[in-house]
Each structure stands twice: as C-alpha cells, then as structure tokens.
Design goal:
Mean pLDDT is 89; it is low at 1-23 and 25-36. The chain has helices at 9-22, 44-52, 67-76, 90-98, 111-122, 138-145, 163-172, 195-204, 230-234, 263-269, 279-290, 292-315, 336-344, 368-381; strands at residues 54-55, 105-108, 128-133, 149-154, 177-183, 211-214, 239-244, 257-260, 320-321, 327-331, 348-349, 360-364. The two termini are 35 Å apart. The protein is α/β, with parallel strands linked by helices and 394 residues long. It folds into two domains: 9-66 and 292-381, Aspartate Aminotransferase, domain 1, CATH 3.90.1150; 71-290, Aspartate Aminotransferase, domain 2.
C-alpha cells in the first residue's frame, strides 16, 4: 500500500483489531478513553499517514501491550497528579523475576537510558569501550560524544562476535578500558554469543574490568547454546545486564528498562539516572511480567513469521544472516539507503544502514499482513535469483 493513497480510519482500526485479536490481545484505544472527550485533532492527517506504513524498521512489537497491561495502565491514570503513588512494587517484581535482591535493580526509561548511564558513569576522556562492529551503535556514539574512545572489532565471517579478539583487545588496553560491551543477541545481525563464549570472555579478561551485556532481545532466542548472563551478577562478577520492556512486551513508546548488577555498581550509576519512569509504565511493567500467556503468543507468532519470511527470501535467492531475534538481515546486494527509498515508496519502512554491512538490509518482524506487504514490495524491487535455501552460513 502506498502512503500517498488514502487509508480510512475504519480500515486501519479494523486491520489492527484483527491482528491483535489473532494474538488474543486487545487494542489500546481504551487507554486514552479514561475521562477524556474525543475531539477532532489538527494532527489527524499526520497520524493517519504514519499509521498507513508497515513499520519494519525499529524492531518493535507490532501488537502493543497485552490486555492485562492495558487494564493496569488504565487503572494507574488515577495517579497522574501524584508524586508518591503506589507503583506495584515494580523494582521488587523485577528482582523476584530474576531471583536477585531488589538492590540489584536500577530502573531506566528503556534499556537505552541504562546504556547511556553506564557510559556516563564508567567512561571519561581517554577511557575506552571495547566491542564489535556492527552492534548497537548508540553505545559507541555516546562514548565518542564524551571524548572517550571506542575499540570496534570486526565480526567473524559468519557474523558472530569474535570473543578471543575482544579478550585480546581488552588485555592490550587494560588500564584504559572503561567497560566491554556485548550485545547478545547482537543488533543488527541477530546472532547470539553462546553461554560458553560469555564465560570465556569473563574468565579471559582482568576481573576488575566491567562488562555490559545487552539482552534486549533475550526473549526471542531459541539457540540451546545461549543463556542469560544474570547468574554472573550473583557470582559477584563485574557485570551489568541491560533488559527492556520495549520488545516482547510492546512498550517501546512508553520507555521501561532496567539494569541488573551488584549494588555497588548501581550505586555509582544512580546519580546519572533520571528516574523518569511514570506511573502508567510501572504498572504496565508489573502486569507484563505476570502475563506469561501473552508473552508466549507474541514470541511464537514473531518467530513463525520470521522463519516464514526468511524461507521465502532464500527461495528467491537472497541469503539471510541466521537470527535469534524479532528481526533479520538479508543480503540484497544494494545500498540500504537506496533500498529504503524503494520500500518507502511502497508504504513499507525498513532498517537504516549498518556499516560495514553495506549491502545488507535489516527488517523487523511485523504482523502477518505487514510481512505480506514487505514480501510483495521485495518481489517488485528485486529480481529472482537462484535459491540459497540449504546453504546458509552458521
């Protein structure tokens, strides 16, 4: 569907409702109905244009918060005018979820704030962050913004992270390393670092070096060699685990994330944290962790659609990097900026460039209808090649 074509509100709402009903979820319109009269908005056209796109560029959950989360957030509206409101004991609930004491949890406005706070706390001019490239680039750009340095190591040929190279670079630059950054699974490639490799990293570097492990996509992993690194916190390691409610729980626009780490590490970070988590978000987070069924439905649907789309692309002759997330990277052989323009003209938003993978396109998993639109556009933009099925790397 082209964004220039008109899309009626009835058509859009109907489509969204169908998608949510498939997952047993409820559209979030009621959230804004609490004591609010619906008035015509001068932004109506802009909103309709945004809604008309298939949004496959930011690794979002396309279904939004579950019904139980919406009920909790609707209830929390009554605290909108309060400071010291009940918050559902969100920090304690997260701590219980991970089996750690509550003083091992620091809340943030999404995991993005946690990553930034780690940078502000442990980097300074002359200090270095060690990681791979490409990975979640905000960590590196923030480091350079505060006049620290980023040591960015290339990926292996199969797009996995080179753990021995990270260990070596950390040892060489030991005195100047502020922290090591490990995105697991990695964004934008979607590949995991195995549990054995994580231990190899932690055992291989000096024990006083801090390691930031970003587990934003943890919930989508099927790889049996993968494991969360939260237990290392209880071992007393200098490890910070970053998690987010933006992906599996559909709260990207509402901002809730957290760090799991030893209290003495969090104590250093706390002065740089804004603490700007609002009442609705806290109650939504509490409900999210209790709603295992909705989490399972989102996970299963996302993985099914990812596998289905990847298989179709490979049948057309376009190899895809094996992914353990709610997105994938396909090798199109064309620059991403150029390709993005072609997709946008067809009403589909896809990922930005990720140097040095300058012929790969990152695609998030949307609803079934959105993935159909993506494949329709893909077939219009790219010629059919020989099938790559059965010849995937790794």
């Amino acid at each position: 569907m082209h964004p220039s074509k008109s899309v009626s509100r009835r058509h859009f709402v109907g489509g969204a409702t169908t998608a949510l009903a498939y997952l047993g979820l409820k559209p979030g319109a009621d959230l804004w109905a609490h004591g609010v009269n619906r008035l015509p908005s001068p932004y109506e056209q802009e909103v309709d244009q945004y809604d008309a796109f298939a949004k496959l560029h930011f690794n979002e959950n396309p279904y939004g918060p579950s019904e139980s989360m919406m009920e909790a957030m609707n209830m929390a509206f009554k605290y909108s005018n309060r400071y010291g409101y009940p918050d559902g004991d969100i920090r304690e609930v997260i701590a219980d979820h991970h089996g750690v004491p509550s003083d091992h949890i620091l809340l943030g406005a999404g995991s993005g704030e946690i990553l930034k706070v780690v940078g502000v706390t442990f980097l300074a001019p002359g200090k270095k962050v060690v990681g791979v490239d490409p990975s979640y680039g905000s960590v590196y750009s923030h480091a350079t913004g505060i006049h620290a340095d980023a040591i960015k190591l290339p990926l292996l040929e199969d797009f996995r992270q080179d753990i021995p190279a990270i260990v070596n670079a950390t040892e060489i630059n030991y005195r100047d390393v502020g922290f090591v950054y490990l995105c697991n699974p990695n964004n934008p490639t979607g590949r995991t670092v195995s549990a054995d490799e994580v231990r190899q990293l932690l055992d291989g570097i000096p024990p006083d070096v801090l390691v930031l492990i970003d587990e934003a996509y943890h919930h989508f992993v099927e790889d049996p060699t993968y494991a969360t690194s939260v237990p290392y916190v209880l071992e007393g390691r200098r490890v910070i685990i970053a998690r987010t409610f933006s992906k599996i729980f559909g709260m990207a626009g509402m901002r809730l994330g957290y760090a799991v780490a030893r209290p003495e590490i969090l104590q250093r970070m706390r002065p740089f944290s804004t603490g700007s988590i609002n009442a609705l978000v806290k109650w939504g987070g509490v409900a999210a962790l209790a709603d295992n069924e909705s989490e399972k439905r989102v996970r299963e649907t996302t993985l099914r659609l990812r596998k289905q789309t990847v298989a179709e692309l490979e049948t057309l002759g376009y190899p895809v990097i094996p992914s353990e997330t709610n997105f994938f990277m396909v090798h199109t052989g064309r620059p991403p900026r150029e390709v993005r323009t072609d997709f946008r003209a067809r009403g589909v938003l896809v990922g930005r460039p990720f140097p040095p993978l300058l012929e790969h396109l990152r695609v998030s998993i949307g609803t079934s209808g959105e993935m159909d639109r993506f494949m329709t556009a893909f077939k219009e933009i790219f010629p059919v090649r020989a099938s790559t099925a059965g010849s995937r790397t790794g």
